[in-house]
Amino acid sequence: MRIHRFIPAGAVAAGIIWIAISAIAQDATKARLSPVPADQKTRADLAGSGSVTATLSGTKLTVNGSFEGLKSPATMAELHSAVAPGVRGPLITQLTVTKATSGSISGSADLTQPQIANYRKGGLYVQLYSERTPEGVLWGWLLK
Length: 144
Description:
This protein has 144 residues and is α+β, with helices and mostly antiparallel strands. It has a single domain (27-141), classed as Superoxide dismutase, copper/zinc binding domain (Immunoglobulin-like, Sandwich), CATH 2.60.40. The protein has helices at 3-25, 113-120; strands at residues 26-35, 49-57, 60-68, 74-81, 91-97, 103-110, 124-130, 133-141. Strands 1-2-3-6-5-4-7-8 form an 8-stranded antiparallel beta barrel. Strand 5 and strand 6 form a beta hairpin. The longest helix has 23 residues, at 3-25.
């Protein structure tokens, strides 16, 4: 009869352990989207802001966010890898973006082990492009 008293406690303990393991297995970061570095030619078209969050579960990175205040409609958004924060790098994947001056960004990618290591040290970023800024209007580095 006493064993029945321990079954609920064991189930609760197992649930707590599962939640802790799930939290460890998922790795989340955030990025504030702000204008890319400008020169005299592009400065007038750089406006807007936004934010994204990214969650790594296993090898899959999922990105979700929003933006607003662009001077022309967004055309695309991309996830990139680089050697360090602030340094441009190669494309990992295209993201889905609202083709307007404000909207949402979303998407996911299966990362390689080197890309996962780079993500964990702040080497991935999201870049948003618009009609007037084919070189990019907003970008943000995925950081803890």
